[in-house]
Design a protein that fits this description.
Elements: H1 2-17, E1 22-27, E2 30-34, H2 40-55, E3 58-60, E4 63-65, E5 70-73, H3 83-99, E6 104-107, H4 110-129, E7 135-144, E8 150-161, E9 165-167, H5 173-178, H6 182-202, E10 208-212, H7 223-234, E11 241-245, H8 247-251, H9 255-267, E12 270-276, H10 283-288, E13 293-296, H11 298-301, H12 308-323, E14 327-330, H13 336-345, E15 349-350
Parallel strand pairs: 5-6, 8-10, 10-11, 11-12, 12-13, 13-14, 14-15
Antiparallel strand pairs: 1-2, 3-4, 7-8, 7-15, 8-9
Helix pairs in contact: 1-2, 3-4, 6-7, 7-9
The structure holds ligand C2E and magnesium ion (2 copies).
One magnesium ion (MG) binds near residues 154, 212, 244 and 274.
């Protein structure tokens, strides 16, 4: 379906270019359009036509698929005259178009260079960050809704950047994924979280530690080994480790992914679905993957005390999850009012600023555990 989709899109772009230039596929879902003799009016006209052409849904096998184009534009000679320079600047401009909400276009401007440079410096910094030990794991408590006992923690990575200070995952995880660095970084988080979990366990605080996985860690088959060696090195009982998968992992369940998931379950580690409700996976499907927990995305939890529709959605997720034997975790609990409703529903666990923000290990020592 993906291939047919790209072919149809390519056909539409070619047709609508009307011989004013050349279109080529750069790779993945990226196309390059070359307009040899175009002034600004002509560029605007072509871009508008291409966006219109892409706006009509593409129907393949009875499925209606919607596209959005993000276009970045670099102009010769203002922005440069060789292909590499123009491509790099068009790419930076496209980045900005995407960030502006997609379905839009941007011309390259010099100030984009600095954003682009930040991107480049982050990815080269990431390469060294592991060796220099610049990553830190913060932990956020997960509590039992009935009595607020802390039963687990979620491990959330931070980067102690030598110049820019403490960075959150939003600033570097995507870049790490693009740069192919998420696999070693993910393995480091696993080792570190297991080491810390073992320390708590030996101190008589058996907290279950949840670690976030990127969909990319499921490719290439190294995940099973990474988990196994993190457990072996630390001595953590597998039952105290939970792996959080996002729905994007489930969008692409190949036989290899299924085998990995099955082996992880056989090791005795728990699997949960993170940010549930933001993707398209069905509960029945999730159940078949031997997942044990569902974390309801905070956008569905935040307003359940004020927005009746939000309450219907979140309440239904809790009920359906329970009837399939899944444990439910509500993310982003910030108020007593929300907690009361979750308690009425019988939601099992909760996580959010109401109980504590993510903190370094040293900040987590105070609360009593179950
Ligand atoms: P997530 O796994 O859904 O983690 C929960 C995020 O929500 C955390 O953001 C947390 O600080 C925030 N949060 C928790 N309680 C509340 C609340 O009550 N209100 C609000 N507004 N926010 C709350 P953080 O630490 O910035 O992490 C963002 C995302 O980065 C995570 O979302 C996760 O998808 C990803 N991430 C974090 N660590 C790792 C990692 O080691 N590997 C990978 N692949 N991804 C990670
Ligand atoms: Mg998570
Ligand atoms: Mg989440």
């Amino acid at each position: 379906v993906g291939d047919e989709f790209l072919c149809e899109l390519a056909r539409r772009l070619t047709t609508n270019l009307q011989r004013m230039g050349t279109v080529g596929r750069q790779g993945g879902d990226e196309f390059i359009v070359f307009l040899p003799d175009a002034d600004e009016a002509a560029i605007e006209q072509v871009v508008a036509r291409l966006h219109q052409a892409a706006a009509k849904p593409i129907v393949i096998d009875g499925h209606e698929l919607a596209v959005s184009l993000s276009t970045g534009i670099a102009v010769c000679p203002d922005d440069g005259c060789d292909f590499q320079t123009l491509l790099k600047k068009a790419d930076a401009a496209m980045y900005h178009a995407k960030a502006a909400g997609r379905n839009t276009h941007r011309y390259f401007t010099e100030c984009m260079n600095s954003r682009f440079a930040t991107h480049v410096s982050i990815s080269s910094g990431l390469r060294r960050a592991l060796e220099r030990d610049e990553f830190v794991v913060f932990y956020q408590p997960q509590v039992r809704v009935t009595d607020r006992a802390v039963v687990g923690v979620e491990a959330l990575i931070r980067w102690n950047h030598p110049q820019r200070g403490l960075l959150g995952p939003a600033e570097f995880i995507t870049i790490a994924e693009d740069a192919g660095l998420i696999v070693p970084i993910g393995a480091w988080v696993l080792r570190e979280a297991c080491r810390q979990g073992t320390q708590w366990w030996r101190e008589g605080r058996p907290l279950r530690v949840a670690v976030n996985l990127s969909a990319l860690q499921f490719r290439g088959g190294g995940l099973e080994d990474a988990v196994r060696s993190a457990l072996d090195e630390s001595g953590l009982p597998p039952d105290l480790l939970e792996l959080e998968l996002t729905e994007t992992v489930l969008l692409n369940v190949t036989d290899d992914v299924l085998t990995t998931i099955r082996r992880l379950r056989q090791m005795g580690v728990h699997l949960s679905i993170d940010d549930f409700g933001t993707g398209y996976s069905s509960l029945a499907y999730i159940r078949r993957l031997a997942v044990t927990r569902l974390k309801i995305d905070r956008t569905f939890v935040a307003d359940i005390d004020t927005d009746p529709e939000a309450a219907v959605i979140a309440g239904t997720i809790v009920r359906m999850a329970h009837s399939l034997g899944l444990t439910t975790v509500a993310e982003g609990v910030e108020s007593e009012a929300v907690l009361r409703i979750l308690n009425d529903w019988g939601c099992d666990l909760a996580q959010g600023y109401l109980f504590g923000r993510p903190v370094p290990v040293s900040g987590l020592d105070a609360p009593a555990t179950a």
